[in-house]
Amino acid sequence: MVHEEWKTVKDIKAKYMFGHLELPGFYMNAMVKMPETGELSSAHLTAQDYVFSGHFHKRQNNGNIHYIGNPFGHNYSDVGDFDRGAMYLEWGGKPVYLNYEDGPRYNRVPLSQLVESPEVYLTPKMHIQVTVDTEITYEEA
What we know:
It contains 2 helices and 8 strands; from the N terminus they run E-E-E-E-E-E-E-H-H-E. The chain is mainly beta.
C-alpha cells in the first residue's frame, strides 16, 4: 500500500483479502516478531472473513489472518520451523496447508543430542549447526 492507503483497509468488506503485509505481532521468521509501527494492524482487518499474506517466512495465523509462509526454509533464521509448504483454497472453503517434507531444513542441536539420536537430526537436506556441549578433543571436533 502506498502512503496512507492502509487507513482505508478497515472499510473493505470481503470474503478473502490477499496482501504482502507487515502486521505487528506476527513472526517474520522463527525468531523475530514484527514490532508495532503505529500503522496497519490486525485491528484494521476485521471486515474480511480471511486475510492471506505472504512476506513473512513463518506460517502462522491469528483469528482471520493467515501468513502462508515460505515453501521451505532458507537459512538459519528458519531454525526448527518445519511447517513449510503450500496453502490451497477453494472458493467458499477454508485454507488447507500441506507440508513440503522434501525441502531444506535448518536446525541447531547440542553435540550430545546429535550423538545420542543421529537418526533424528541427520536427515536428507538438513543443515545443522552443532554446539559442542561435551568434552571432546581438537581432533574429534
